Amino acid sequence: MARPLPRVLALTLGEPAGIGPDIAIDVWRRRAELSLPPFYIVGDSAFLARRAERLGVPVPMRSVAPGEAAGVFATALPVVELGLAIAAEPGRPDASSAPAAIAAIRRAVADVIAGEAAAVVTNPVAKNVLYRSGFAEPGHTEFLARLAAEATGVAAQPVMMLWSPELAVVPVTIHLPLAEVPGRLDGELIVSTGRIVDRDLRERFGIARPRLAVAGLNPHAGEDGALGQEDIAIVKPAVDRLIAEGIAARGPIPADTMFHAEARASYDAALAMYHDQALIPIKTLAFDHAVNVTLGLPFVRTSPDHGTAFDIAGSGRADPSSLIAAIRLAARLAASAPASAAVHAMAGAKAP
Fold it and tell me: Domain range for residue 305?
C-alpha cells in the first residue's frame, strides 16, 4: 500500500557563496506571515548558522531526517545534513562550493524519489563554479534529468518553463550559443517539447486544454522565407504536427508581437526557439517573482528565476520573492495526482 505523499519540500542550499542561504533563512523566518508549507534545507547547519549570524538574524536550527522536518518546522529551521563542511564566504566561492551544491541536489532528488519529500526546490548555482569542478552537465535542468534516469531507469526529456501569473514561457533550445541554435533546432524537438508542455499543463497545472503559442525563429517569423527558411521548413511543420495530435498550438508567430498584454491573454504558454527569446520577456514582466519549473520529470522541481548574486550575498539585501513563489508553486504542483502517483510508484518500487 502506498505511503501518503509527504507535505514537506526539500530545499537545496544552492551555491553556498551566493544568496541561496540568505533567502532560505529569510523565508523560514517569515514562514508564519507567509503561510508557507514546511520545508527543510539540504546543507550544513554550522555553515547556515554562521551565515545567519552574519546577516544579524540568528535562527534556531535542528539537524533532522527528512521525515522529522515537518514536525520541527514551526520552531526551528530543519536541516538535512550533507556531511560536508562548507567554508565558502559570501561572494567568494571556494573548493567546498561545487561539491556542496551538487551533493545537495543529489540528496534532495533522492529524498523525493524515496517518498521522503513532496518536491524539490533548488536554490541558484553558479555554473562556472560547477564547471571548474568537472561538472559535466550544461545546467540544473539537464542534471536533474540524469538523476531521474539513474533512479528510475527511464530517460526523461527535461523542459524548462519559466512561470509567473503574467506569463509562462518555454525555451525549446536552452543552454546553447546563439550561433548554434539554427543547426540544433529541429521539428522533433519542437514537437516533443510541445507534447510535454501540453501534458504537464493539463496534469499538474489543471488546465483542461492548454493553448500553446509557438514563436518563429527569425524576425517576423521569417517573412515568408525572405528572412530565413527555418520557420517554413522546421517550425511550421512542427506546429502542424502538434495540431494534428489534438494539441491547441499555433505558430510560428513573430516573437516581437507575442508578449504584450492582449497577446498573452490568448495562450497559456509560449514556446520560444532559444534562451533569450524566452527569458527576456519574462524577466521584464516578472523579474522578482518568476519561477523556473522543470517539466517532463517524474517529480516536481521548481527554482527561483535568478542567479547567485554574489555582489549582495551576506548583505541582507537579497529579495526572497522568487523563492517564496517557487515554494508555493512546488507545493501546488506536488499536490496534483500524477505527480503523487509517480512518487508513490518509485517509492514503492524501492520499499523493502
Answer: 1-156+297-352
**Within this chain, do residues 35 and 180 fall inside the same structural domain, yes or no?**
no
Beta strand pairing status for 291-295 and 77-81?
A: unpaired
Report the C-alpha dihedral over residues 89, 39, 279, 236, rounded to 10 degrees. Answer: 140
Q: Do residues 88 and 31 both lie within one domain?
A: yes
Q: How far is CA 339 from the centre of its chain?
A: 15
Separation in Å, CA 204 to CA 207, 212, 293, 294, 297: 8, 16, 11, 12, 12
For residue 73, give every residue at least 6 positions away whose Cβ sits within 8 Å of its Cβ, in sequence order, or none: 8, 31, 38, 39, 40
d(CA 309, CA 304): 12
* All cell numbers assigned to 54: 552574519
Kindly state whether residues 9 and 147 are assigned to the same domain: yes
Indicate whether 63 and 209 sit together in one domain.
no
Residue whose C-alpha cell reads 527569425 in the numeric block: 218
Type of residue found at 228? G
Instruction: Answer left, alpha or beta for residue 56, where phi above 0 means left and psi between -120 and 50 means alpha.
Output: left
Measured CA to CA, the distance from residue 66 to residue 77 in angstroms comes to: 12
| Tens-binned pLDDT, residue by residue, of the chain (352 aa) | 445 556 899 999 999 999 999 999 999 999 999 999 999 999 999 999 999 999 999 899 999 999 999 999 999 999 999 999 999 999 999 999 999 999 999 999 999 999 999 999 999 998 889 888 888 887 788 889 899 888 888 888 999 999 999 999 999 998 888 999 999 999 999 999 999 999 999 999 999 999 999 999 999 998 999 999 999 999 999 999 999 999 999 999 999 999 999 999 999 999 999 999 999 999 999 988 999 999 999 999 999 988 999 999 999 999 999 999 999 999 999 988 555 455 545 444 443 3
Strands (E), the chain: 9-12, 39-43, 61-63, 77-81, 120-121, 159-163, 168-171, 211-215, 248-253, 269-272, 291-295, 301-304
What one-character-per-residue DSSP string does 59-110 give?
--EEE--GGGHHHHTTTSEEEEE-S----PBTTB--TTHHHHHHHHHHHHHH
The dihedral through the CA atoms of 203, 204, 207, 209 has a sign that is negative
DSSP assignment, residue 229? S
